[in-house]
Structure formats: structure tokens, C-alpha cells
Amino acid sequence: SGAPSGAAAAGRGLDQISPEGAAGVRFRGVTKAFGANVVLRDLDLDVAPAERVVVIGPSGSGKTTILRTTMTLERPDSGTIEIGGRHLYHEESDGRLRPAREKHIREVRSDVGMVFQHFNLFPHLTALENVMLAPMKVHGKSREEARDRGMYLLDTVGLAHAANQTPGQLSGGQKQRVAIARSCACEPKVMLFDEVTSALDPELVGEVLSVLRDIAALGTTTMLLVTHEMGFASEIADRVLMFDDGQVIEQGPPDQVLGDPRHERTKAFLGAVR
Ligand code: ADP
């Protein structure tokens, strides 16, 4: 972290992720199956603007699918999803979902940023070019504007010095920090983090968690995180959701869900990961 560097941040109000404010997320009755495998089961989920929610649960329980449906990478079979009060789909009288118009979906989706387990950086572009790309191509920002924000964000994740390096020259932790900066570049009102430390060597986990703490401290974006880092979860989360068998089986403040779980399956899960 550290203070934003000189020209990049000077007087531009860049010390935030989304200048327009965070957005909430609402699922109502969302069901999603892959063949006979029902992964989300009539799921209701509310995340308030700027809230930090950590989702925990067994592997294969559908946590990633929650994030991917929020990002419109998967379409639910039924139910509705709203981001910042705007619907991604509408339900017809026959109960089937129709997507909203493609232009509307693109607009709603542009409020959401996602960081994946495996960084997915463009290998032939530098760190800075990776961060500048979407603001220019998708959001029509000028090169100068994209560069300013890109440098500010690389500085925020402690990588201003690596701006001109390509992913092949960076460590796993550095790559993931670039990926986080990249996902912040489009001023997301909601950020989704899918086990962003689980592909890293243990000694590189801390530097990535520290960047997530900095983003959380800004408090200007909603954060929905899937993680197995329970210490980190209890420190950062406003609320922890225990997810199993397609449903939220227990939720509450981290002290309660992680420290004093009520549900037998939560106890068993926490016993296994600790
Ligand atoms: P988690 O993130 O909790 O590990 P996932 O959401 O990744 O769980 O997956 C939930 C279940 O859905 C798993 O059984 C997985 O195999 C299945 N699944 C996920 N994506 C697909 C897909 N595109 N096609 C078929 N099955 C899938």
C-alpha cells in the first residue's frame, strides 16, 4: 500500500474504488442446476451497499456459482438477481427467465468486478497495460486517464515499480495484486473475490490479503468473498454466510458463525478446515 504517488493521484479524488458509490446485490429464489446437480436451491441473498460478506462452505457446494451468476457468467434457471436495484433477468408468467436486453445486462455487469483464483492476466501485456485495457476498450476512457488510474491502482497494491513488467516476470502474489488492481480499474460498485489466495504459495498469501484489507478499509465498494482463510474472514467480514447443499444454512457476524456456530454442518466444516 502506501500513499498514492505524485501525479497519478494528485487532486483527482482517486482514493476510492467506486466514485459513484457501492451497490447492493439481491437474489430472490435463485435456482441453478447443472444437469441433475442442483447447485443453488431457491436462494435468497441480500448484500447491502459497501457490506463485506464472506461465503464459506464445503468444496463443490456452489460458492463459486453464486459469484459467477452475479457476474452473469452463469444464468440461473429461475429466480431474479438485482445489482444496485437493476434486474439482470425478468421472470415471465410461465416462470421462465428472460434476460434483460443485452445492452442493459452489459451496463449492469459493468458495475461488477471479479477476481479469480487463477489471475487470468494477459501474458503479453505489461502490468500497467493489463490494468489500462478495460477502462479504454470497454469504458471509453482516454489513454491518459486510464494510465493515471492504472498507476494509482498499481501503487495502491504496492506494485508501481512493476508497472512495465509482464506477468511472466512477476511472482504469483504480484500477479494476483495486478489482477486486483485491474478489477478495480473499472470503478466496480461490487467486487467478487473467488478464493483469490488459494493458488498461491503460503508465503505469498499475506501480501494479497493485505491488499484486500486496504480495499475494505476504503469502504467504497461492496465485497463478496469466497475464502478458506478463516482468520482473514473473521477480521474483514461484516457477515459470514455458511453455504451448503444449495442454501445458506447459517449466517451472522463472524464471531458468531466462526466462533460459536449453531449448525452441526458448520461445526463439522470449521473443524475440518482448521
Ligand atoms: P464451490 O465453489 O463451492 O467449490 P462450485 O460453485 O464451483 O462450488 O460448484 C458447485 C457444483 O456445480 C459442483 O458440483 C461442480 O462440479 C458443479 N459445476 C460448476 N460449474 C459447472 C459447469 N459449468 N458445468 C457442470 N457442473 C458445474
From TrEMBL:
| Entry keyword set | Amino-acid transport, ATP-binding, Cell membrane, Membrane, Nucleotide-binding, Transport
Q: Which residues form the ABC transporter domain?
A: 25-270
Give the start-end ranges of region Disordered: 1-14
Report how it sits in the membrane: Peripheral membrane protein
- Would I find Nucleotide-binding among this entry's keywords? yes
Principal subcellular localization: membrane
Composition bias of kind Low complexity appears in 1-13
PROSITE patterns found in the cross-reference section = ABC_TRANSPORTER_2
Molecular-function GO terms, alphabetical? ATP binding
Key word Transport present in the record? yes
A UniProt-annotated Pfam family: ABC_tran
Q: Which InterPro entries match?
A: AAA+_ATPase, ABC_ATPase_HisP-typ, ABC_transporter-like_ATP-bd, Ectoine_EhuA, MetN_ABC_transporter-like, P-loop_NTPase
What is stated as this protein's family in its record?
Belongs to the ABC transporter superfamily.
In Swiss-Prot or TrEMBL terms, this protein is called: Ectoine/hydroxyectoine ABC transporter ATP-binding protein EhuA
